[in-house]
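Q: Could you fold this chain for me?
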Amino acid sequence: MVIFFIITLGFYGLWWMHQVNKQVAAGTDENFSPLMRTIGLLIPIINLYFLWKFSMSSEAVVDQSGVVLFLLVMLLTWTGRQAPSIGVDRTIPPALSGPENSPRILDNYRLWFGIAVVLVVIAYGIPLGDMVADGLLNPGSPPISP
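A: Sure. Below is the predicted structure, expressed as structure tokens.
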């Protein structure tokens, strides 16, 4: 899971949280939109409200206290370890070879733009398509069939 999180620059965590919200919605009698709860986690300060609602909703699914779950997440977030600082000495090493030795295809911006577009479509297309297919703003709506 950590590798997916790194490869997708954090978007996998958002997709995973959406999947968990869908499971909580299916496992409880509450009527809420998993997509709106997932998007709400991205908005500072408001995300605390959505995390609280998620904790309370998951109480029925995990048979644990929602308050304890919320406080545990807050405690682990505040006391979490930060990455160590890496020292840089501000010197740039000499190049191994000059620009005359590089292939000309690497100077083509269209190639790099095309590669970037393909990677973005792969990384974001499938999860966004899954979220839209579940019913964009209507919780409990039937999936969109092609």
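A (continued): The two ends are 30 Å apart (CA to CA).
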